[in-house]
C-alpha cells in the first residue's frame, strides 16, 4: 500500500503541491465550496497553541471532519507513554488523520516512519518546521497583491529559534522570491552557510525599501540558556517601530506569525497599523488548513 500523504515540511512537499494549496486556500477564502470530507481528525498538541490549534479545528469542521483534541498535559503522555504508542492508540481507534505539534524537532518524521499509513500534518516541531504557517503567510501576501518574483522580504528578530522562519525561507526560495533578507542579534541568526539570503547588519539595512517585513517573537522557551539581549535592550536595537518602518516601501506589508509580544519585537502602532496583515494571516490560516485537509485526504 502507498504511503499516506503528509505535510511534514516545505522541502518534502511534492512538486506543484505548494502552488496548488496556495491557489485552493485563496479560492476558499473567496467563497469556493469546501470538499465534503469524512472521518475523524485527531489533534495531538504537546505544546501550547492558540492560532494553529483552533484554526485546524475550525478547518476540520468546515470540511465535514469530526474532531478530537488531545491535550498533551491531560493525556497519558504525562504517564510516560511514548509518542509512537500514543499515535498507535489513536490510529487503532480509526482516526482519518493526525495533526501533531511537538516541542522536539523531528518528532513528526518519527511518527511518519512508524505509521506510514496515517495522513499526518506537522503543526510545528521544535525549531525545525511549521509548514502550514509558511503556506498561510504566502497565501496572505498573494491575496494582498504581492508579486513574489519582485518582492524584497525582510525576516527580522529571533530567526535561529524560529521554525516559522525556516519554513518561510524554504517556501520563499521554492517560489522564487526576488530577495530575502534576514536581520537580528548575532546570537539569534542561523548558521551563515545554510541559507540563500542577504544577511543585514541592522534593522535599518533590512528594512530599506522592503516590500514585506516578517517580524518574529523572541522564543526564550527554545533557548538552552538565556543568550542575546534582554527584552528592553532588544526593543531598543531591533524593535519594529513606526519610525523604523518608514524606511520600508510605502506599501510595505507587516506580518507576524503570533503570538505577538507588544513592546518587545513590535510596537502597538505597527502591530495595529494600516500596514499590518497580522489578523489577515490568522483569517487565511483557516482557509489554508481547509485546503491542507482536502489535499491530505485525497481531494
Ligand atoms: N503561529 C502559531 O503557530 O501560533 P500558535 O502557537 O498560537 O499556534
Count of helices? 11
Helical residue percent band: 25-40%
Shape: globular
Kindly, what is the distance between the CA atoms of the first and last residues, rounded to a whole number of angstroms?
18 Å
Percent of residues in beta strands?
A: 15-25%
Main sheet specs: 5 strands, parallel
Q: Which sequence of strands runs across the widest sheet?
A: 1-5-4-2-3
Q: Look at the helices and sheets and give the structural class.
A: alpha/beta
SS elements, strand count: 10
- Return the average pLDDT rounded to an integer: 95
Evaluate the radius of gyration: 19 Å
Order of H and E elements: EHEHEHEHEHEHEEHEHHEHH
Uncertain segments of ≥5 residues (pLDDT<50)? none
Compose a concise summary of this entry.
With 299 residues, this protein is of the alpha/beta class. The chain is built from 11 helices and 10 strands. It is globular and about 55 Å long.
Describe it for me?
The protein is of the alpha/beta class and 299 residues long. The chain is 36% helix and 15% strand. The chain has a five-stranded parallel beta sheet, sandwiched between helices. Strands 8-7-6-9-10 form a five-stranded parallel beta sheet. Strand 2 (40-45), helix 2 (51-62) and strand 3 form a beta-alpha-beta unit. Helix 1 (17-29) packs across helix 11 (278-296) and helix 2 (51-62) packs across helix 11. The longest helix is centred in the last third of the chain and has 19 residues, at 278-296. The structure holds phosphoric acid mono(formamide)ester (CP). Residues 49-53, 124, 133, 257-259 line the site of phosphoric acid mono(formamide)ester (CP).
